[in-house]
Write a structure and sequence with these properties.
Blueprint lengths: L2 H16 L5 H11 L6 H4 L6 H15 L6 H14 L8 H7 L1
Helix pairs in contact: 1-2, 2-6
C-alpha cells in the first residue's frame, strides 16, 4: 500500500468514525487534489481556533480554487463544517474539511 493509499484509508476511517456521509472515491479525489501537504503534520490539519487559518482556507480554497464570491455564506459554511467534524476534535483533517465544503 502506498503512502497515498494509507492516507486515503485513514481519512475514510476518520470520516466513518465521525459519521460523515462522504464517498470513499470523493475523499480519494480530494486527497490527490490537495497534493503533498497531506504528508506534513502541520498542513494536514486545520487549526479551527485560529481565525487566520480559517481565513486562509476561505481565501485560498473557497475563493481562489473554487471561484466562489466572498461573503457571510462562506463563513457560515466553514463554521458548519467545523461543527460537523467537532470543534473539540484535534484532527480536523484538511481533506475532510475541503470535502465537506
Amino acid at each position: 500500500m502506498s503512502k497515498l493509499d494509507e492516507k486515503i484509508a485513514a481519512y475514510v476511517a476518520e470520516s466513518k468514525k465521525l459519521g460523515l456521509s462522504l464517498d470513499e472515491a470523493f475523499i480519494a479525489k480530494v486527497t490527490k487534489g490537495i497534493g503533498p501537504s497531506i504528508y506534513n503534520a502541520d498542513s494536514e490539519t486545520i487549526a479551527a481556533s485560529d481565525p487566520e487559518e480559517l481565513n486562509r482556507v476561505k481565501q485560498n480554497f473557497l475563493i481562489k480554487k473554487l471561484g466562489l464570491k466572498d461573503g457571510p455564506d462562506l463563513d457560515k459554511a466553514l463554521e458548519e463544517v467545523i461543527t460537523a467534524i467537532g470543534k473539540s476534535n484535534k484532527n480536523k483533517y484538511r481533506v475532510l474539511v475541503y470535502a465537506l465544503l
